[in-house]
Amino acid sequence: MNSEPQSIHASAVLIGAHALLIRGPSGSGKSRLALALLQAADSGALAFARLVADDRVICQAAHGWLLARPAARLAGLLEVRGLGIRRVPHEPVALVGTVVDLAAADAGRLPEPAGCEIEGVRLPRLAVAPGVEPLPLVLAALKTDPGAA
Questions:
Q1: I need a surface site. Which of 87, 96, 125, 132 has the fewest CB within 10 A?
Q2: CA pair distance 106, 128, nearest whole angstrom
Q3: What tens digit of pLDDT does each residue of 71-106 get?
Q4: Distance in angstroms (rounded) separating the CA atoms of residues 62 and 5
Q5: Pairing relationship of beta strands 114-118 and 121-127 according to DSSP bridges
Q6: Integer Cα distance of 67 and 91 in angstroms
Q7: Beta strands 56-62 and 114-118: pairing type?
């Protein structure tokens, strides 16, 4: 391993081979998006999705990748607003492929490709504007290629 683990306020969902690390302020919908992604896989809109972590994600750089793990006491737990804390299947570790920032003030209508750095690892970043439903945007990002302008 290349660094000491860092606990961040986020959720992480494994989509195929790589996880989405979902960040945002309290109440921005991190857990709601995680649940929506799991439901998208159940309905066939995604081939595979599995919770890695909700509320606290342990991030650690390793060999140029960012690893995401659940905080031990929260492993397999997901907050579902209106139902409380629920137990769901989860992955113990995943490679992060993309960061999704909810309620991002810098989200643009036609953004330039952007990235961010976590634990020294550079990652693609999807900024979701405040008030925008993130699931359609995330699904579009996962299932389409950028067009030529």
A1: 87
A2: 9
A3: 999 999 999 999 999 999 999 999 999 999 999 999
A4: 10
A5: antiparallel
A6: 12
A7: unpaired
